[in-house]
């Protein structure tokens, strides 16, 4: 009898969690519009939004790769480019499968969107922020204050997604976890002159 009750209990629990997620997301969407509680901070939040967008990261990484004259730097940048492309593909696939709509209070004025960007789960900005954060901390020699700033940037990008009304809380939390895990995949598939000589010959 207890086993028969489990499916309905699970359904109730998931519905309750979803309701809490939607309620918290709406309450935290304080920059969702100019007339919102923190509407005056919206321009700053949109700058943070651009800082976590895929296009600036892809263009910046590709430019650095073309300009670099160090083999070590090229190896790191090539793997960062691989990580960013992998992130874009994975997020697009998950969004297309889940098809969760963005919060109703979201204002669709995002910086450069594509078809799957009408969906909300997971947050691509959050996955990218977590991925780049781990990548930078592992492959760049930075002073402690700069390392702290990198971590804060990743967290602020995630929080800004909810504050702008772009995503629900669970979209961002899952995105951060996915980006964190995705870095491990990049490390496992690390591209080097030994593992991918033809690719490095192009540069």
TrEMBL record:
<keyword id="KW-0256">Endoplasmic reticulum</keyword>
<keyword id="KW-0812">Transmembrane</keyword>
<keyword id="KW-0539">Nucleus</keyword>
<dbReference type="GO" id="GO:0006629">
    <property type="term" value="P:lipid metabolic process"/>
</dbReference>
<protein>
    <recommendedName>
        <fullName>Polyisoprenoid diphosphate/phosphate phosphohydrolase PLPP6</fullName>
        <ecNumber>3.6.1.68</ecNumber>
    </recommendedName>
</protein>
<dbReference type="GO" id="GO:0005789">
    <property type="term" value="C:endoplasmic reticulum membrane"/>
</dbReference>
<feature type="transmembrane region" description="Helical">
    <location>
        <begin position="172"/>
        <end position="191"/>
    </location>
</feature>
<dbReference type="InterPro" id="IPR000326">
    <property type="entry name" value="PAP2/HPO"/>
</dbReference>
<keyword id="KW-0378">Hydrolase</keyword>
<keyword id="KW-0732">Signal</keyword>
<feature type="transmembrane region" description="Helical">
    <location>
        <begin position="135"/>
        <end position="160"/>
    </location>
</feature>
<feature type="domain" description="Phosphatidic acid phosphatase type 2/haloperoxidase">
    <location>
        <begin position="76"/>
        <end position="187"/>
    </location>
</feature>
<feature type="transmembrane region" description="Helical">
    <location>
        <begin position="77"/>
        <end position="98"/>
    </location>
</feature>
<dbReference type="GO" id="GO:0005637">
    <property type="term" value="C:nuclear inner membrane"/>
</dbReference>
<feature type="signal peptide">
    <location>
        <begin position="1"/>
        <end position="24"/>
    </location>
</feature>
<keyword id="KW-0443">Lipid metabolism</keyword>
<keyword id="KW-0472">Membrane</keyword>
<keyword id="KW-1133">Transmembrane helix</keyword>
<comment type="similarity">
    <text>Belongs to the PA-phosphatase related phosphoesterase family.</text>
</comment>
<dbReference type="GO" id="GO:0042392">
    <property type="term" value="F:sphingosine-1-phosphate phosphatase activity"/>
</dbReference>
<dbReference type="Pfam" id="PF01569">
    <property type="entry name" value="PAP2"/>
</dbReference>
<dbReference type="InterPro" id="IPR036938">
    <property type="entry name" value="PAP2/HPO_sf"/>
</dbReference>
């Amino acid at each position: 009898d207890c086993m028969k009750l489990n499916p309905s209990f699970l359904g109730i629990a998931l519905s309750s969690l979803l309701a809490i997620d939607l309620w918290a997301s709406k309450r935290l969407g304080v920059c969702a519009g100019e007339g919102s509680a923190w509407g005056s901070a919206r321009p700053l939040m949109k700058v943070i939004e651009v800082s976590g967008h895929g296009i600036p990261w892809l263009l910046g990484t590709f430019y650095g790769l073309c300009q670099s004259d160090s083999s070590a730097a090229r190896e790191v940048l090539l793997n960062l480019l691989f990580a960013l492309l992998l992130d874009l593909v994975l997020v697009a696939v998950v969004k297309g499968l889940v098809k969760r709509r963005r919060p109703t209070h979201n204002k669709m004025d995002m910086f450069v969107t594509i078809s799957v960007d009408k969906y909300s789960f997971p947050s691509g900005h959050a996955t990218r922020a977590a991925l780049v954060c781990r990548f930078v901390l592992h492959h760049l020699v930075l002073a402690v204050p700069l390392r702290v700033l990198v971590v804060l940037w990743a967290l602020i990008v995630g929080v800004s997604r909810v504050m702008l009304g772009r995503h629900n809380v669970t979209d961002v939390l899952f995105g951060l976890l996915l980006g964190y895990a995705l870095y491990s995949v990049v490390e496992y598939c690390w591209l080097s002159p030994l593992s991918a000589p033809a690719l490095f010959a192009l540069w």
